[in-house]
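Our consortium's second objective concerns turning raw sequence data into structural hypotheses that experimental partners can test. To show how far this objective has progressed, the report includes one record in full. It was chosen at random from the queue rather than selected for favorable results. The single chain below, 239 residues long, was entered without modification.
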Amino acid sequence: MIPRYQKILFGILLVASVAMGVTLWHLRQRAHERLIAGQDSAPTSAPQIAPSERATLLVANDSDGSLLTQFLSLPLPADPGARARAVLGKLLDLYAAPDAAHPVPGGASSVTQVFLLPAVEIGSGAATPAKPKLADSRAVVILSGESSARPSGALSQQFGPQLAVVNLTGSFAASHPSGIETEMLTVLSICGTLHANLPRVTQVRFLVDGAQRPTLAGHADLTRTYLAADAMPAEEIRP
């Protein structure tokens, strides 16, 4: 027979357990309601997507050694440097496609950066970059065998011709087919595409993994400054 004091103790514990269970259930419900209310009141914003614009690509064709103009609708950022990288990324994606007329592996990831600087002064001998107005720069560009701090994108000249410095990956250069014609088609198609979409870009230089490289894949000179005029439109181009 259970003593009376144990029955009383058991009853107290039972009531306390029920009360604690009810309290925890109410606390859980209140926390859930606060969470739902917080989610409903939090401002939601759609992801920023660049508007689609018509981009002009000068696409190389190995069958006749030409550059063909191709128009595409692409989401292009407002920043000129980012815009340049976007159009070049699409161009290299076309070259990496299985049915490409100018097959080159790598795709858009082969262009890591595009710096826009004041155009260089080209005279006799090597090209010398014009001094930028803003010396505070985070972009290190190797030109004429020296490391110099240069402004990128929005820090370049507000007006006047520009030099585009295209930084390619080492894997892109290592896997690029070797040959003077195929290498020059790649170089000139990049120059022509940059000028077609950013008319102020009149000159182009190339880096590979942030450093100067003698050639692309053994032939096309990457130590020189290319003029946008070197990449003539449509079928007229022959490297």
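The partners drew two points from this record. The chain has two domains: 1-44, 53-236. Helices lie at 4-41, 80-96, 170-175, 180-197. Both points have been shared with the crystallography group to help prioritize constructs.
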